[in-house]
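Sequence in, structure out.
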Amino acid sequence: MRIAPLVLLCLSLVACNRTPPSPPVVSAPVPPAGDPVEGLRVATRVGCNGCHGPHGAGEVFQENPELGRIVAPNLTQRRTLYDDAALAALLREGRTHDGHVPWGMPIKMFQHLSDREVRDITVWVRGLPAIDNPSLPQGQWSDALTTSTNDGTHPWLVDMVPDPGHEPPAAPPTQALALGRHLAYTSCTECHAWDLNGWEGDPAPSLVVAKAYTLEQFTRLMRTGEIAAGGKSKTGMMSGVAAYRYPVMTDEEIAALKLFLDSR
């Protein structure tokens, strides 16, 4: 009669000492792979292949007595120095593989690129056929540029660092006004200033000028570079940039950009 209670007591003691089951391990979702076709489209819109060449083989970006020779390097060779996280840090933070200043890269604009756009650009860069470009010269900074870069006094240096604490979006917005703002800050600030109101003393105007365009005229500008009055822009720069970079934009994107610029 006393055996049954004793057995129950032993079983209960074993149960009390048993380790509780571990909670299930929940893995963080893996971001989707990038799209190289969309990467090419984004890279064209933001100017990557405008500076580095249509095939990423590198080009001379600027050459003059004040700056010296600034070269956009061969992406099909330089990409081997960066893993995907490092490429994202280069685009958004200006962090190069050896700490040099990425002259000509508008990091203050690129910081606004979404996670998805960065993945798409990365996959596009990774997929470029390797090209040997022996005719591409080495960069050669002027003494003045070297000095002002090393001592941090060059006024353009601030364009190559992000805003402190900036948090980019996971993907481009879908709502029209927000999408227009995103497109403006990832496509236009390089020339028209970070606030889109133009640089002092620079011919690129405040984008308040967009209000003088009808949507049809604005679409033509973005597709062909033709200004509202007809012909090229005053300096020809916008006409050239628009004709090369912005035809990749959809009608929806152009309309969203116009909506945002009109709302300012």
